[in-house]
Amino acid sequence: MSNSIEIISWNVNGIRAVANKEALQWIDERDTDILCLQEIKAQKEQIPKNLFEKEFDEVIINSAEKKGYSGTATFSTIKSDFYSTCPEIDFTHEGRIVETHYGDIVLFNVYFPNGQRDEERLAHKMKFYDDFLEHCERLREEGKSIIICGDVNTAHREIDLKNPKANEKKSGFLPIEREWIDKFLDHGYIDTFRYVHGDETDKYSWWSYRANARVKNVGWRIDYFFISEDLAENLEDTFILDYITGSDHCPVGIKITI
After folding, report:
1. Residue 182 is a catalytic residue
2. Contact 95, 56 (CB under 8 A)
3. Catalytic-role residue among 151, 191, 223, 248
């Protein structure tokens, strides 16, 4: 028996701030099966109880060792068979990955590192990217199908940000970062948004808090859903919920049959 499920991903830029704004209560109106949050910036005991009324059967929190930083959380109406926080990839303990297994499907909720601080941090980001791809490939060799969602911290193509020329020397749109996404897709993964919507422009998931960027839609598409090619026929829809506020990112999602 196959079921159509909705998975939503959102970099909330602080789960306590989002709770204070009541900015997650829209989830009560939706039939979402799995909710993946990034940059929760909270320890497990600090997660507010009033995020939403919807009940999830499984909640996995992966907090960073450093307080008030990074972190991921997966809320699911489907119990996983197994989950991991991938310490071999996230070896600096920044709470960046929740990996959940549902039969032959593996879902990754990932907050990929930002490379803007300095060269060392960019090198860390690129190593994380490569280690993550290797890990996914090992799972595929075991016969698993892969779904990846989260903040990738890189815009892939010029149509994925408003001002490509002005940003081509900044981390987030460097050739080396964009080439990694090329390499990743070449390994047999699909950028679901482009797969469904083609070369649609002006669709972004992150806007700077400066210069009224969101109102002007001067944004970047850096939040993604990738799937392994074997799931392409299962993909029903992919969307960007850019009307939902409360963070500098907006939620993105897919509907997929599993």
Report:
1. no
2. no
3. 151
Total structural domains within the chain: 1
Give the range of the structural domain holding residue 72, as residue numbers without chain letter: 4-257
Longest Cα separation, the chain: 50
Do the Cβ atoms of 192 and 121 come closer than 8 Å?
A: no
Sign of CA dihedral 140, 142, 143, 148: negative
Contact 238/221 with Cβ under 8 angstroms?
no
- The neighbouring-strand residues paired with 105 are 102, 145
Of 98, 102, 92, 93, residue with least CA distance to 110: 98
pLDDT tens digits, the chain, 258 residues: what are they?
Answer: 579 999 999 999 999 999 999 999 999 999 999 999 999 999 999 999 999 999 999 999 999 999 999 999 999 999 999 999 999 999 999 999 999 999 999 999 999 999 987 899 999 999 999 999 999 999 999 999 999 999 999 999 999 999 999 999 999 999 999 999 999 999 999 999 999 999 999 999 999 999 999 999 999 999 999 999 999 999 999 999 999 999 999 999 999 998
Q: What CATH number does residue 150 fall under?
A: 3.60.10.10
Three-state SS for 236? Answer: strand
